[in-house]
UniProtKB/TrEMBL annotation:
Species for this entry: Paenibacillus lemnae
GO molecular function, one term: DNA binding
Chain's gene name: purR
Gene3D superfamilies: 3.40.50.2020, Winged helix-like DNA-binding domain superfamily/Winged helix DNA-binding domain
Protein name, entry field: Pur operon repressor
Domain Bacterial purine repressor N-terminal: 5-74
Amino acid sequence: MKKLKRSERLVDMTQYLLSKPHTLIPLTTFAERYGAAKSSISEDLAIIKDVFEDEGLGELQTLAGAAGGVRYTPKLSHERALAFVQELCGKLQQSDRILPGGYLYMSDLLGQPSLMNEAGKLIATAYADREIDVVMTVETKGIPLAYATAAQLNLPVVLVRRDHQVTEGSAVSINYVSGSHKSIHTMSLSRRALRERSRVLIVDDFMKAGGTIQGMVDLLAEFNAEVAGVGVLVESGAVGSQERLLQDYVSLACLTDVDPRTKMITVQRGNYFKE
């Protein structure tokens, strides 16, 4: 790499760190990359660390010793998280989202990369200090949020299928109960997709009673895997706590009421801010 001015080096170094979250990067990597002394690199990192913390973008941790280096952990500040969730709630409360039957249209929000990236940062912040091997979701609407979260944690994504595909090889399938009508569905996961005893973060776009997520929890038991956490974009507040199948989870928004007659939708902050 050509010799860079310090200002240019700071920009490139910041981009490098942002692209490799949760990765321990030896100082020699930067020293060789820029042809600079480690002392100069340390000074640069101190500047970046201050900016990240002041702007609520995350933490930059320096580990000393021969095996040391620097690690960037994305973490949104409380203020930035609150601003995003308020924006999300505002979008969810738009009256034209009400579909026949009182359902809520969310596909347009799930299709906005910038929105999902911010939501992924929040879920990644909630579980930044957990040991996690993979992020899991069930096809299809939860996929954008799962990938956004995994990108912030620098982890692979595992997709649970509703219908087994022959290209997936042998798979484990289970039945689960989902929806207000207590209908029975099937989900499957390829045996090659997940190593046994993996620590898994489950992510989904919407949770009512929690049947689908509980199905993924039961599926993970077949792999002797551990649930490291559960993150959802929106939860329904219409289900009593005694009826919900899942209690330990993080939600960004809570849908408390949908009135098809008045076209009124009520959404409030999720339990993310109660953690």
